[in-house]
Amino acid sequence: MKTFSHANFIVAALLLAFAGCARHGPPAWQGYLEGEFVYVAAPLGGQLETLSVQKGAQVAAGAPLFTLERSAELAAQHQAAARLADLGKGQRPTELAALQAHLDQARATAELSSRELAREEKLFADNTFTANELDRARLTHEANLRAADQLAAELETARLGSRPDVIEAAQAALAQADWSVAQKSQFSPCAGLVFDTLYRTGEFVAAGNPVVALLPPENIKVRFFVPEAAFAALRAGATVHVTVAGGSPLDARISYLSPQPEYTPPVLYNRDNREKLVFMVEAVFSAADARNLHPGQPVDVAP
Description:
Elongation Factor Tu (Ef-tu), domain 3; rod-shaped; CATH 2.40.50.100; disordered N terminus; alpha+beta; six-stranded antiparallel barrel; single chain; 3 domains; 26% strand
């Protein structure tokens, strides 16, 4: 029969005390860090001409990321700008001079017919001209006046340039060309880490394919799994304490609680099976705490 010394008794008591503390301490839930990436792409395709960032670099909002080859877009932009400028100028000076010469000739003809009409009206009053001859002279003068007015209107229109609707269509074409040129160069929509670059300079990038993957610090979150018994006590907005291996606990705010369990028992929700249910919970960090975290790191979470 073995006997315990006084020292052995004290050690056993301490072990029992530690075991009791472990059973009654706060629970620790397993999880990992997750990142929601921002994939930057151009809506138009082209060869990757310039890649301005490197994997692992930190970029500010508005920093240049990449530029695709844009020769065709620049040519279309120059063509649209030149057409709009031409439509606003009206006809060429030589064409305007020719219209002016025709107008001067028409006005001279109208002046001559006006004098002829005056003489024939006087002769008609002296019964020298018949009424038919007077009517013919009056109609000729009126036709000469209308011809002069028409040429004057044509000259005014030629000086004004194209119609407003044609100019509006040319302005829309220029706006489209400007947009196409601008879309070939992409800038960072937010500050963050360049998590990855998906193409190399010289490669062809199809329209809509991402070239750079960004990870803003506010997009890093912890995803952990809580047993059913503890899940009901959690609330959105509550604070949890996240411990990354080798680091101090960080505060995180619960942002999402899954309404569905991650594991469904095959038969019934009996007591044994319910203990296997876990629910996914997500929590977010402050930007300052998230800056040094990395997706995929395992963590322990405590309330």
